[in-house]
Amino acid sequence: MTDAPILYSFRRCPFAMRARMAIAVSKTPVRLREIILRDKPDTMIEASPKGTVPVLVTEDGVIDESLEVMDWALAQNDPENWLAGKDDALIAECDGDFKHHLDRYKYSTRYEGADRDEHREAGMAFLRKLDERLSGKKFLCGDAPTYADIAIFPFVRQFRIADPDWLDAAKIPNIQKWLSTLMDCELFKSIMKKYPLWKEAGEEFEFPERDARWGVSRGFNRGAHQE
């Protein structure tokens, strides 16, 4: 493992989640260093001064954009053909307008003048679009999850966390089923494992774990949602 790339990650960050999911499904080994955003290690800032996660330090350079980390991992190995469903326009809409409204809905007190209800409704416009797209199929690009599902899912999950009861009662049944399926799959549960902070413990971890035996397009085991 000493030659494996280093991955700086924060467990609850949706950008880091989608990167970890791609790395995990590709079974590309990295050395995971868990961080907390309010106390970032100097080594991470030296590698990527912008100070956001994920940060992947490889022998060829630093990758500090989550979609680029996904691309890197799947270029190594794409056993479930995720790249076949790389919908750049849909992902850009998620990362742009939807993320803008998500932040101001979930964290409205951090943004001066933000109207929580207005941003929730604006975010729902994107979810209704996804709900319509999911009509008649299990995932965004067909009957198996692909790049688009994994890139977008962590942000929809964040939107739900802001008010789970409200979203679970909304008239978006396809999104609710899709979200529940992905939250309960073994792949997602595996990448949400808690690790000690690298800055405190000085310990990095092999990721994904060598004995992992999951596939997101197979065997959706039901379980408790990870928060």
Helix vs. strand class: alpha+beta
Q: What top-tier CATH class of the largest domain fits best?
A: Mainly Alpha
Average pLDDT level: 93
Tell me the helix content. 40-55%
Strand content: 5-15%
Rg measurement, Å: 17 Å
Count of structural domains: 2
H-E order: EHEHEEHHHHHHHHE
> What's the main sheet like?
5 strands, mixed
What CATH calls the topology of the largest domain is Glutathione S-transferase Yfyf (Class Pi), Chain A, domain 2
Map the helices and strands.
Layout (H helix, E strand, L loop, with lengths): L5 E4 L4 H13 L3 E5 L7 H6 L7 E4 L2 E3 L2 H11 L11 H19 L9 H18 L13 H16 L1 H6 L3 H12 L1 H6 L6 H4 L3 E3 L20
Parallel strand pairs: 1-2
Antiparallel strand pairs: 1-3, 2-5, 3-4
Describe the structure.
The protein is 49% helix and 8% strand. It has 227 residues and is α+β, with helices and mostly antiparallel strands. The protein has 2 domains: 6-81 and 190-207, Glutaredoxin, CATH 3.40.30; 83-186, Glutathione S-transferase Yfyf (Class Pi), Chain A, domain 2, CATH 1.20.1050. It is globular, with a radius of gyration of 17 Å. Residues 218-227 have low confidence and may be disordered.
List keywords for this structure.
single chain, 227 residues, alpha+beta, Glutaredoxin, Glutathione S-transferase Yfyf (Class Pi), Chain A, domain 2, 5-stranded mixed sheet, 49% helix, disordered C terminus
Question: What's a concise summary of this model?
Answer:
The chain is α+β, with helices and mostly antiparallel strands.
